[in-house]
Amino acid sequence: MSTIDLSFNRFEGPLPGLPASIEYIDFSGNSFSGTISPLFAQPMLIFSHLIITDNIINGTIPDSICNYLNMFVINLSGNLLSGELPECWADLGDLSGLNLANNKLTGKIPSSLGTLSWLQALHLNNNSFHGELPTALKSCTMLITFDVGDNKLSGEIPTWIGESLAYLRILRLRSNMFNGSIPPQLSLLTSLQILDLASNKLSGNIPSSLGDISAMAQTHKPEERMMEVLQGAVQSSLHNYGPSGYSDTLVLVTKGRKMEYTKNLQYVASIDLSENILSGNIPHELANLYGLQNLNLSGNKLTGKMPEKIGQLKLLESLDFSRNNISSSIPSSISLLTSLSLLNLSYNNLSGRIPTGHQLQTLNDPSMYIGNSALCGPPLEECEQNETHSVTLPIKDDEESEMLEFYISIILSFVAGFWAVWGILLSIDGLRYAYFEFTDLLLERLSSPFR
User: Fold this and answer.
1) Which UniProt keywords apply (predicted)?
2) Distance between CA 363 and CA 365 in Å, rounded?
């Protein structure tokens, strides 16, 4: 393989021209400027990997990029590229990875991308693309990563994402202008590990069927994790090419900050539906996603109760239900979340005593509970004494009422027995006369010694 790898140095100036025998180029992490046109001054017959991330390349992406029919990976992320994308993508039938994130690209996403039947990673995030997602993308049935977040895309989230993209593991549509409801068909994505629909205009209920996504329900023992690492090494060959490799990366907002995942991306499980207009109850089925590490439903209009079995999410590291209208007590099972490092339940209508125990004792920042006037207990103010009595008094009243009923039953039994005997005596003439004669005789004998 003919390779040029100049990544992560301090090179600057325009990109150099290259010989025709080059197959792999990596100029990442430098200060190259100007356009990418010099790279295409002459045809390179075996050119397959173009990786020029994090430079200051500007200008547009020329149509000539599609002349290299053997291209497997194009990664031009983190530059100053502008203008609209060319429509020639149908010529690159072998393309597996396309990353144009973090540029200044505009226009609509070209439908010709839908002809890339081998495409596995598509990153168009953090640009200025507008319009709806082209239906032609449903033909990219090999997609594993679909990231178009941080654009100006609109319309409803299409149902074909769940119906056609069976291998999808990462779906990131955050920070756009998508409206309508969340399609229940997303639950058909059994391999989905990351669902990020935050900061859109989505409305309606959260589909309870999201609790059926099997990849998010998986937990792993150490030996199982090691086996997955070995399997992942084989599967990641779909995403890694050449001596330096092309590794798929993703930026997630979790634990209140942005975090970039690369090597451990395949082990992340996250749902972020924050900053929308979602309403209704939080589906209790979400508590079935035992492998979740991040769950963020903040900034919506959710009502009802917190899921009682939230404590089943033992791997949860970040839980944010803040700024909703949830009105219930905090389930005691939340104390079972021993991996939790961020909890935010602020600005709801929660009430009662805050549960204690385990990891919750280390999360002592009062701000995660503020805005719930009826909550009490550490780290907020202690609950009032009469609140504690209100729990115990009904129990004492019940005990006293049970004792009273017991004594009354004894008295009634005695009275009933007494009158039953006397009733028999008074109703039978012979017995009544005999009884009174016996009583008179007994009294006469008892009194005779005193005469």
Assistant:
1) Kinase, Receptor, Transferase, Tyrosine-protein kinase
2) 6
Residue 154 CA to residue 235 CA, distance in Å, equals 33
Three-class SS state of 180: strand
Torsion of CA 209, 132, 302, 319, to 10 degrees: 70
Count other C-beta atoms under 10 Å from residue 410's C-beta.
9
3-state secondary structure of 307: coil
pTM comes to 0.81
Between CA 119 and CA 140 the distance in angstroms is 6
The pair of three-digit structure tokens given for residue 273, joined into one six-digit string: 């539906």
Number of H-type helices and E-type strands within the chain: 4, 28
Residues 163-197, buried b or exposed e (16+ Cβ, 10 A)? ebbebbbbbbbbbbebeeebbebbbbbeebbbbbb
Give the model confidence (pLDDT) of 321-376 as tens digits. Answer: 999 999 989 999 999 999 999 999 999 999 999 998 878 888 889 999 999 999 99
DSSP three-state, residue 246: coil
Q: For the chain, how are helix, strand and coil distributed in percent, rounded to 5? A: 35, 20, 45
Token pair for 4: 């040029």
Environment class of 348 (CB within 10 Å of its CB; exposed 0-12, middle 13-18, buried 19+): buried
pLDDT tens figures, 365-382 = 999 999 999 999 999 888
The distance in angstroms from the start CA to the end CA of the chain is: 141
- CB distance 79 to 58 below 8 Å: yes
